[in-house]
Amino acid sequence: MSVGGGGGGAHAAIPHNNIIAFGLVGGLVGIYAAYFLVDMLGEYMSFLGALGAICGIVWGAAAVRRVANYGLGTGVPSIGMLALGMGVVAATFGLAVGGVAGPVIAVIFAAIIGLVIGVLANKVLKMGIPIMEQSMTEIAAAGTITIIGLSTSMVGTFLFDEVMTGVITTGHIAVIFIAGGLAILHPFNANLGADEKQDRTLACAFEKGGIAMIVAGIVATIMPLASGALTILVGLAVWYVGFSAFYKRVKRDAYMITGSGLLPSKEELE
């Protein structure tokens, strides 16, 4: 593994427990709000599912940041894909057996899967990362929330039959896998280094969540129980706010660069 951090705990201005609460509670609230409000008010409320997914994305990116700071560099993309892989398994199981309680069951099942993988990574593979078990548990749960939230925004519900028909069998699950996985893994990869800061990394995650929401809205335009147009518009707003915050922090943290002109030609060197 290449070095992706300082080999120790990542400095955090925002307490990680606050981010866990934001991702878990905010994610489930967004998912359930979309489910119930679509029935009550119409398909226009389906965008709330994607907002719940963004909560999960920010949480997942924060968990990736913490564990990757112990020295994972090339492992960061693997963790992002693992998050969505665990999420697909857990979401499918939870929604299939849980009915209205499906998202909660899926998150619990995901946490169990993540914990087992974390234990195997530390005890069997001997990775020796102190927070591996907790981080894998969080990443799996965050990935599950991301998948269910984006699925809900696409089809207007999280009930298994509709998700199976509108998301999985159509292949749109691949869109969720790619957009959600990148949103979770990319922020730390984009900001890693000695000057990596939590607020800049999480602003990048928020911005990538906006892109995932836009993609979900594009898919939702062909679904009868979801509003693609409103999801796209809200996603654009989220992206703009997130990108503005990210760019502001990039300028804050960037070193001064002095232009040195073009490289000398071969003739000049001779």
Protein architecture, described:
By secondary structure, the chain is an all-alpha fold. The protein has one domain. Helix 2 packs across helix 7, helix 7 runs antiparallel to helix 8 and helix 8 runs antiparallel to helix 9. It is globular.
Biggest β-sheet description? none
Q: What would you report as the Rg, rounded to the nearest angstrom?
A: 20 Å
What proportion strand?
under 5%
The pLDDT mean sits at 88
The tally of beta strands, per DSSP, is 0
Distance between the termini: 41 Å
Uncertain stretches of 5 or more adjacent residues: 1-7
Topology as a string of helices (H) and strands (E): HHHHHHHHHH
Number of domains: 1
Looking at the structure, what is the overall shape? globular
SS field, number of helical segments: 10
Class derived from helix and strand content: mainly alpha
- How much helical structure, as a percent, in the residues? over 70%
What is the multimeric organization of the chains shown?
single chain
Topology, element by element:
Elements: H1 16-41, H2 47-68, H3 75-98, H4 102-124, H5 132-155, H6 160-168, H7 172-191, H8 198-220, H9 228-253, H10 266-269
Helix pairs in contact: 1-2, 1-5, 2-5, 2-7, 2-8, 3-4, 3-5, 3-7, 4-5, 5-6, 5-7, 5-8, 7-8, 8-9
